User: Which sequence fits this backbone?
């Protein structure tokens, strides 16, 4: 998957971006609306991973834009505009999480995010012949009819599963798999270690895979 | 060689490129002979791919207008 820095589809080149920044700094409302249209929905989705409800997520996004505007003049362009904006979003969300009930206290971002039960589907480690082997064969999903994963039921199961993830897992998988940020960027945005980020991502992907499997059955 | 249960735990580490060379060899040696783990690996990758194709939620117009108002206020301050 391409990163936000390299994805052409996700925005203008760095040269275009410089022009965009000049327009933003000059107070060009059309340019601002363009950036808001491009980044806004993804920002709301990422904020939603931290927030208790959509109202709080919206407030985090609004607070982020106010911080972006006040930091625009000082922005040194060491990263793309998108990465900078999402870094501010991560800071706002983490600050907000300290004071909200659902929330992702910063300390909990550095845990695996709950649900560390043993998975089903394996023979016991002491089994005489099949120790720690799968009890059934997993089939490849790419052998299924093309639209199997895109049914409304499958989509709904993903949405529900994302909502039910612990907030730290939800934040990591949203940034990595839905929004295409790199692992380094996610560690920086969330203030988690690379190892912890991988654990959170793994648990989140396992949960979403499980939800998809149940929808496919 | 790793067990299926270990492969289950290490799939993301493998795909992230964070296993060392020895672990990577063990992982690949197992998957090449184990159809169940190949299937599971393929499902995990399909999950990741599928998530990447989802569209973001609609951005509420009232939120957009509220943020644009903040932009206009900021612009006035700049003058």
Assistant:
């Amino acid at each position: 998957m391409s990163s936000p820095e390299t994805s052409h589809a996700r925005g203008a080149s760095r040269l275009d971006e410089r022009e965009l920044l000049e327009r933003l700094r000059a107070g060009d409302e059309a340019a601002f609306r363009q950036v808001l249209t491009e980044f806004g929905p993804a920002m709301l989705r990422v904020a939603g991973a931290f927030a208790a409800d959509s109202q709080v997520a919206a407030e985090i996004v609004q607070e982020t834009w106010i911080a972006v505007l006040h930091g625009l003049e000082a922005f040194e362009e060491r990263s793309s505009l998108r990465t900078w904006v999402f870094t501010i979003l991560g800071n706002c969300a983490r600050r907000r999480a300290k004071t909200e009930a659902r929330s992702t206290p910063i300390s909990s971002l550095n845990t695996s995010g709950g649900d560390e039960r043993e998975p089903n589907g394996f023979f016991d480690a002491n089994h005489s012949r099949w120790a720690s082997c799968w009890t059934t064969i997993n089939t490849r999903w790419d052998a299924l009819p093309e639209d199997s994963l895109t049914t409304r039921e499958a989509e709904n199961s993903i949405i529900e599963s994302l909502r039910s993830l612990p907030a730290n897992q939800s934040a990591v998988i949203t940034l990595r798999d839905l929004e295409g940020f790199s692992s380094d960027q996610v560690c920086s945005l969330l203030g988690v270690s690379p190892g912890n980020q991988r654990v959170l991502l793994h648990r989140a992907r396992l949960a979403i895979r499980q939800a998809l499997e149940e929808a496919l059955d | 060689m790793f067990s299926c249960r270990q492969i289950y735990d290490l799939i993301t580490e493998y795909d992230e490129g964070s296993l060392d060379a020895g672990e990577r060899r063990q992982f690949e040696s197992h998957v090449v002979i184990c159809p169940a783990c190949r299937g599971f690996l393929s499902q995990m990758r399909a999950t990741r791919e599928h998530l990447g194709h989802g569209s973001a939620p609609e951005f509420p117009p009232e939120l957009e207008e509220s943020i644009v108002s903040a932009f206009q206020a900021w612009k006035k301050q700049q003058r």
